[in-house]
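Customer ticket, subject: "Can you confirm the structure for UspA domain-containing protein?"

Message body: Hello, I'm evaluating your service for our small team and ran a test protein. I'd like someone to confirm that this is what the system normally returns, since I don't have a reference to compare against.
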Amino acid sequence: MATSEKQALVVGIDESEHSMYALEWTLDHFFASNPPFKLFIVHAKPTASSVVGLAGPGAAEVMPYVDSDLRKVAARVVDKARELCLSKSVHDAVVEVVEGDARNVLCEAVEKHHASVLAVGSHGYGAIKRAVLGSVSDYCSHHAHCTVLIVKRPKTKH
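Agent reply: Thanks for trying us out. I re-ran your input and got the following:
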């Protein structure tokens, strides 16, 4: 690898505060001055069928509306990520929206960009919710072919 060629860092984002915190933390810690990485920000947009499910009368009729909503969410997430990058003077981030399950999308983005680091937020789910929903960060930590950075928000004191 040429010395001028930067390593890739992928940050996975969704509409949660946790993922935006992970992006902000990554920008603050790796992109403050003379960053060693090329930044790729990836949002996995669920498919309408994965949200609606495939069964039931009327499913076909609601699919376009669900897909439209998912597109709007993706646009908001991407806009928020771009604004955050600009506020931190990061102007060359590549932002991608890829349709599919976040676990697969992020692991595939690591391969596609030959990333040396994947950064993801942690929703802080308990054991039962994590077992039911599946943890994107847990999956990526086992399946991504790079270092996985799981950024947790500090606990707020009441």
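A couple of notes from the result: The chain has a mean pLDDT of 88. Residues 59-87 form the longest helix (29 residues). Feel free to reply with more questions.
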